[in-house]
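Section 5.1 Outputs to date
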Amino acid sequence: MGRLLPFLALATSVQLLACGDDGSSGTGAGSTTTTTASGGSSSGAGAIDPGSPHTPEGGCKAGFVECASWCVDTSTDAAFCGDCETACMQQGNGLTCEAGSCVPGDCLGAQCGEECVENRSSNADHCGSCFNQCASDALCFDGGCVDGNGDGSSCASPLFWNVDAQERVGFRFTPALTTPHTFPCGPLDPLPTRWFRFTASKDQTVVEVRADGSDDFVLEAFDQVVCGPSDSMACNDDDSGADPQLTLTTTVGGTYWVAVGLKGEWSGKSASIRADH
């Protein structure tokens, strides 16, 4: 499997561009504070945690070995069960890995503690390897943590990436790195919101957010950096429990911003986003 592809050009070919690189962040109106989910504020730099590096390059944690450029536990990993060459999914459906052997079971991916992770390529809590947690200002792409080139705390400091295929990237919601935003769809109260940015290379772009846990998100897109009500292109709050999705009419070379709002309490699990046409 390929490792980190240098920054995004999604098969839609969307390229996310930066507004700011440091820990400080602001709102679209130019504020320099980062607002927490509870309504308090904190320094962006202080709110960004370093994550928990756990890679072959930096050293695998005890109990893990390097397989296909990932750190894996061959006793419970269905992709590398018992050794680096044995994949339970190649031996039949419904097999998981226990004690280094393929047996019938429910976890077809990596058993990371109590959690079954089926897609480590875009899970910011288990990025490529169990317990390889990306920092709050980083993204998980193709099983590795990449710089988000912004902290995602506001429209003025969005996260962005570039990729060569229709891949989703994982992010940590991190309520400390949000600004309150009121969405025209869904709840009318301000919600803690994470921000992204992209440049379209097609005339139609689909943006989708997917929760790895029980989180319920609402999605809005803008065509101006102010990200004000008059700049809104579309909004989606999928009350059915499905992942919110927007289909945008975009201009090749045009820059767009995406707000991801959290309804209710954060589950503590990562989420992922993709921009596609």
